[in-house]
């Protein structure tokens, strides 16, 4: 009985690359391997045939000889052990065979390999993110809030401890409090993004607090005092004569204490108000001042 063309055996064209040949061999070998077809003589013969074709076509020298002379190139020398079932491990990493020769002389482990392929890898659950809005003073001084969030289809109560000095947009991470993992994988994380409500008159610039204060032009020109209201205290600041609108006075370490322990400054910005709706007497005085200036 004449041998079938090796390319036909593997179901690939003559122009196939080595990678394509290996892929075809793997598919057929898994189908006809004796471990999967115990007692089936036809499957065993088929496996020998595809193994023989594979060994020839993946050897550059042998493939060249076969392409030139066909099966005649190997009539005298033979394949050297082509009748056995060895070599399958080269593709499948020893999944068939190994040390033992159970089940009719063919290495065990076929089911083991497929059971491993069927078992999906553990997958970490998705992270979940929610927003929590706090007051300006709560972000600076710290606070604690209990919030209820939907996680894994169940509403869960989470105790959120907002650290003092946290900045707007920062996130607090709760490891393992997110979505459940798949196939034994760990749960994802829960992220709480802290958003800060604007203050009525204070602004934050990093660890510094900006406090705009409006005063009349007479106080700015002659000097005097302006009242400052911060989050925790009220005090008066002396304004020197000739203070211009926009001038800032720095008060050391009166700002925000960061999470790293660094304290910023309080920046008092003077805004000089221009008078409106002046009466005739006030206008006369201003005109007189202008003439004298």
UniProtKB/TrEMBL annotation:
GO terms assigned for molecular function: unfolded protein binding; zinc ion binding
InterPro entries: DnaJ_C (IPR002939), DnaJ_domain (IPR001623), DnaJ_domain_CS (IPR018253), HSP40/DnaJ_pept-bd (IPR008971), J_dom_sf (IPR036869)
SUPFAM superfamilies reported for this sequence: Chaperone J-domain, HSP40/DnaJ peptide-binding domain
Segments for region (Disordered): 107-127
Entry's Gene Ontology cellular component terms: cytoplasm
Highest rank taxon of the organism: Bacteria
Alphabetical UniProt keywords: Chaperone, Cytoplasm, DNA replication, Metal-binding, Repeat, Stress response, Zinc, Zinc-finger
Presence of keyword NADP: no
Any one GO BP annotation for this protein: DNA replication
Cofactor dependency: Zn(2+)
Localization per record: Cytoplasm
Domain J residue range list: 5-70
Subunit structure: Homodimer.
Protein name: Molecular chaperone DnaJ
Organism name: Aliivibrio sifiae
